[in-house]
Design goal:
Layout lengths: L2 H22 L5 E2 L13 H5 L18 H11 L4 H8 L4 H6 L6 E4 L6 E6 L5 E14 L5 E3 L5 E11 L2 E6 L4 E4 H7 E9 L6 E9 L5 H11 L18 E7 L2 E7 L9 H12 L7 E6 L2 E3 L30 E5 L2 E5 L5 E3 L3 H4 L4 E6 L5 E6 L4 E6 L7 E5 L3 E6 L5 E6 L1 H6 L9 H6 L17 E6 L6 E3 L8 E7 L5 E8 L2 E12 L2 E10 L5 E9 L2 E7 L6 E6 L7 E2 L19 E5 L3 E5 L6 E5 L1 E4 L3
Parallel strand pairs: 2-8, 12-13
Antiparallel strand pairs: 1-13, 2-4, 3-4, 4-5, 4-6, 6-7, 9-10, 11-12, 13-14, 15-16, 15-37, 16-17, 18-19, 19-20, 20-21, 22-23, 23-24, 24-25, 26-27, 27-28, 28-29, 30-31, 31-32, 32-33, 34-35, 35-36
Membrane topology: Lipid-anchor
GO cellular component, one term: plasma membrane
Family: Belongs to the LpqB lipoprotein family.
Length: 624
């Protein structure tokens, strides 16, 4: 189903079903399957693979006679216990502070307790002390639930005020943030997705958040966060069906979530489908949720697509906005003898029609559109980008030329993304901050001389966007302008881009948001991913919240990894082709991983462990 078709279906289903239910004033419950959140082509693999298991901490509590440092170290250990509103942590505080302390929802994440530095200053009376804690910061979990990896230079730097109570040290003042180790975060928090829409309302987009997993009210927390809107990072790139300013009350009992919305937005007929889709895709991650009831301004609202009270086996309306962004029968593509070939789910091969199938125009890199009706590629030599229809008689036309182009990708809007290497241009630019002027050199007794040319050109990148594969415009990408971008992959929903950059001798993976405005298109606010990998050679979108990358850990063998977009969860190995050097990786929701290996072979795996050779060819890709 094309993007335009999905968008039309969204509007039609939303309006028709909402009008019917509001006129009839009927109530309905949509049953969310109890088998877990894994659904075919959901594009939400990372959240789906989390089992939500909560390992309860047995806190030791403050020990008699413990000193200032011992008290704070014990407090940091027991802060990971969330039972009874942090009852264990409050035992370390004075009575007044136990009542006053109210964590603000922010979590400062550090590595290990052994890496924490604690400095103590005690007053002359010996009754009051200040303990300063300093340790490298791993990340921050914002009150919105967003996990933000820290820069390598950031530290956790907080102080605790202590006073003696009946001869024992107790905390009298402390930060409003929780301070947790990475291990505590992994144990206590659960990564989940909130779902919002992309620009044209055709596809749902996951917004990863972290929530404590030890509460029975997790479903109501998710609902409230969903209605309140996306995290600050994703907000400019997505849309919500819940009107701005909508207030929400939610209850969860015996597998049933009841959502009460109050809004001044007036008629919500055109929003009912969208609200239902966002709620169902968000709540279906929780197997304990079985039913969903929705009321708006006191009126029962029938949720479109729930005719037989089962979301997955009902009308299929929810599939029209599936976060995967691809059809169930998506095909892979590869190059053989310069010709473009496709590979279907039964591993049947077919040569593409048009110029791409003839192979008389060699391409260094290429990408197939999500509709599988066009191919774009960088011509041999890298100086031009060409596009051709995948149809009989489809010939290549040039959309960009006279540059040094290195990567191409399609998004769900039909836009073609292109990366241009501008390092040669930057070499010709004057140094914006020269070490010294000619006059300075003369004063120091040295003759002025031309600077020695750099051994390596100054890296630089320009990003282009060609709507519908034509008439390219430059994308505002200031964070990439001074970097060497090896690869760029647009998400299939069109809201984000994943990039692979070279940083000295290392490579890094980033994800940035795509923002459309009156001034054009921008990619911004890049977040690092795959921090546990030493090197990365290739990237691909496996799902809407997960990348597949070709990389290595601790200088080990190059292999495929699955990288979640939540910023925290470690990369998961997807194995490697035995006895062959992997060169590329390609992925799509519900489809096998593909890899191009040495000696011009294509390999695949369905289970992320056992790889097998499929055919002769190079550089396999999926649409996107």
């Amino acid at each position: 189903m094309t993007t335009a078709t999905r968008a039309r279906r969204l509007t039609a289903l939303g309006a028709a079903a909402s009008t019917t239910c509001l006129l009839a004033a009927l109530s309905a419950c949509a049953t969310v399957p109890t088998g877990g959140p894994v659904v075919q082509n959901a594009g939400g693999d990372n959240a789906a693979e989390q089992d939500g298991t909560y390992v309860r901490l047995l806190p030791a509590g403050p020990q008699p006679g413990v000193g200032e440092i011992g008290l704070i170290r014990g407090f940091l250990k027991d802060m990971g216990s969330f039972e009874e509103n942090h009852r264990a942590a409050r035992l370390y505080m004075t009575s007044a502070e136990q009542s006053a302390w109210s964590p603000d929802g922010t979590v400062l994440v550090y590595g290990e307790l052994d890496s924490v530095g604690l400095d103590v200053t005690t007053d002359d009376t010996g009754e009051h002390a200040t303990v300063r804690m300093r340790t490298p910061r791993v990340a921050t979990i914002e009150p919105s639930g967003q996990y933000v990896p820290a820069d390598s230079r950031e530290v956790v730097d907080v102080t605790f005020e202590l006073t003696r109570v009946d001869g024992e040290w107790r905390i009298s003042d402390l930060p409003s943030e929780l301070v947790l180790s990475r291990r505590d975060v992994d144990r206590v928090f659960r990564p989940l997705n909130l779902y919002f829409f992309n620009r044209d309302l055709s596809t749902l987009v996951p917004d990863p958040v972290f929530l404590p997993a030890n509460t029975s009210q997790l479903p109501t927390q998710l609902v409230k966060m969903l209605v309140n809107g996306p995290t600050g990072w994703l907000r400019p790139a997505v849309r919500s069906s819940f009107p701005e300013g909508t207030s929400v009350a939610a209850a969860f009992d015996s597998g049933r979530v009841t959502v009460e919305l109050t809004t001044d937005a007036g008629a919500v007929e055109d929003l009912a489908f969208g609200m239902g889709a966002q709620l169902v895709w968000t709540l279906r991650q929780l197997p304990e949720v079985q039913e969903l009831a929705l009321r708006v301004n006191g009126e029962d609202v029938e949720i479109p697509g729930a005719e037989d009270e089962n979301v997955q086996t009902g009308s299929g309306a929810w599939d029209s906005v599936n976060p995967s962004g691809v059809s169930e029968d998506v095909r892979g593509y590869f190059i053989r003898d310069g010709q473009l070939w496709s590979l279907d789910g039964d591993q049947q091969e077919a040569r593409a029609e048009g110029a791409a199938g003839r192979g008389d125009t060699p391409l260094e890199v290429y990408a197939v559109s999500l509709a599988e009706d066009r191919v774009a590629g960088v011509a041999a030599g890298g100086s031009a980008v060409r596009v051709a229809e995948l149809a009989e008689g489809g010939d290549y036309r040039t959309v960009l030329h006279d540059g040094d182009y290195s990567a191409v990708s399609w998004d769900g809007y039909g836009n073609l993304w292109v990366v241009e290497d501008t390092s040669a241009e930057r070499e010709e630019e004057p140094d914006p901050d020269p070490a010294g002027s000619a006059e300075d050199d003369t004063e120091r007794g040295n003759a002025a001389a031309d600077p020695e040319p750099s051994a390596d050109p100054r890296p630089g990148t320009r990003v282009w966007l060609a709507p519908d594969g034509a008439d390219p415009v430059e994308v505002a990408a200031p964070e990439l302008a001074g970097r060497e971008v090896l690869q760029l992959r647009a998400s299939r929903d069109g809201t984000r881009v994943a990039v692979l950059t070279r940083e000295g001798e290392d490579s890094r993976v980033w994800v940035g948001r795509v923002v459309y405005g009156d001034g054009g298109v921008a990619v911004q606010e890049f977040i690092p991913l795959a921090m546990d990998l030493d090197q990365v050679a290739d990237i691909s979108w496996r799902g809407a919240d997960q990348l597949a990358v070709l990389g290595q850990k601790e200088r080990g063998a190059l292999q495929a990894y699955l990288v979640p977009l939540d910023g925290s969860t470690e990369s998961t190995s997807a194995g490697a082709a035995p006895g062959a050097d992997m060169r590329t990786v390609a992925a799509a929701p519900g489809a096998p991983l593909l890899s191009g290996v040495e000696n011009d072979n294509v390999w695949l795996t369905n289970d992320r462990l056992m790889w097998q050779r499929v055919t002769d060819g190079t550089n396999p890709v999926y649409p996107g």
